[in-house]
Design goal:
alpha+beta, Multidrug efflux transporter AcrB transmembrane fold, elongated, about 325 residues, single chain, two-stranded parallel ribbon, 2 domains, Beta Polymerase, domain 2, four-stranded antiparallel β-sheet
Length: about 325
């Protein structure tokens, strides 16, 4: 409680920028871990991500069989020649959702009759949805176009509102968030559905919002730096980051709590399986987005800005002044001794 109270009062000054090597190392590890998951998934499943039926095409059977088990449902489909059916429990009233490879009409009818016989389910209560691979490819193409337009809009906005180096830092942080979230999806095996894509776009917007808040404060604080400044760009940026720390943490906490409730309570206790694709993307993305805005975007911006002659001159002057003060202090101590 004491730490939280001091944090909210602004009595704690965290040296985010000074620990940039630690953050870079942690981010590098997370990115390598994520890329390894994508490569492993591609080697085992033939695709970096577990694409849902909306993208690869297939047939979806939805029905209710309260007394059935996953093994029994999978066995019914396998007995009819279906290869690797994906069986999911839906809701708490014995609902099932089974995804298969694309099946011809005769094959779908055959599976439907098997469900009726094995689980005593009325034929009219079985919902069958057939999705073509071409439709899935069209959805994927539109998703990539939307992502490209979004990224271009971000670059233009940040370049006009701030400066190109801030835009570059924000884009790197966004790519950092996307790669890590995609890696978590690859390792977890969760399906990538259109809801997942909405989650990814939400992540981009959320991460951008946090970065803009931090950069706006940095812009305001560093605008006062001049030849007679008593702070380097690094120190000024770190102070600005600490001033927005509480706001970032509060915003993240308020946003993450309901998403966590959907992910851990809704999908496990209530069986809201259709929400887990969206909630996982949002949960991981918000956590990583908060981390990247504090520990990736700002340290990277400082690294780029420190190379400018203006801020290098300030740093050299302050270093010389501090060094001179130490030298004078040392001589005084010797004389006194």
């Amino acid at each position: 409680m004491g730490l939280g109270r001091r944090l909210y009062r602004g009595e704690i000054d965290v040296d985010f920028v000074g620990r940039r090597k630690l953050w870079y190392g942690l981010s590098a590890f997370l990115i390598v871990f994520s890329i390894a998951g994508l490569i492993f998934s591609a080697a085992v499943h033939g695709s970096p991500l577990n694409l849902g039926v909306e993208f690869r095409g297939g047939s979806v059977f939805t029905f209710k069989a309260p007394g059935a088990t996953i093994e029994q449902v999978r066995g019914t489909f396998s007995d009819e020649g279906v290869h690797q059916p994906i069986v999911q429990s839906v809701g708490t009233d014995g609902g099932w959702r089974v995804t298969t490879e694309p099946l011809p009409e005769a094959g779908r009818d055959k599976v439907q009759q098997a469900i009726v016989q094995d689980f005593r389910v009325p034929e009219q209560s079985i919902s069958i949805q057939a999705i073509g691979a071409s439709w899935g490819g069209e959805v994927a193409t539109k998703a990539w176009i939307g992502l490209g337009v979004f990224m271009l809009a971000i670059i233009l906005y940040l370049s006009l509102a701030f400066e190109p180096k801030m835009a570059l830092s924000a884009i790197v942080a966004l790519l950092h968030d996307l790669i890590i979230t995609a890696g978590i999806y690859a390792w977890s095996g969760f399906e990538v559905t259109p809801a997942t894509l909405l989650g990814f776009l939400t992540i981009l917007g959320y991460s951008l919002y946090d970065a803009v808040v931090v950069f706006d404060m940095i812009k305001e604080v560093t605008a006062k730096l001049g030849t007679g400044s008593k702070k380097t760009y690094t120190q000024a940026a770190n102070d600005a980051l600490n001033h927005t720390l509480i706001r970032s943490l509060n915003t993240s906490l308020v946003a993450i709590l309901p998403v966590a409730a959907i992910l851990f309570i809704g999908t496990t206790l209530l069986g809201a399986g259709t929400l887990k694709d969206l909630s996982l993307a949002l949960f991981v993305g918000m956590l990583v987005g908060t981390y990247s805005s504090l520990c990736v975007a700002t340290p990277l911006l400082v690294t780029l800005k420190e190379r400018e002659p203006k801020y290098q001159a300030i740093a050299r002057r302050l270093a010389a002044t501090q060094g001179g003060g130490k030298a004078k202090g040392g001589k005084a101590a010797v004389a006194k001794g």
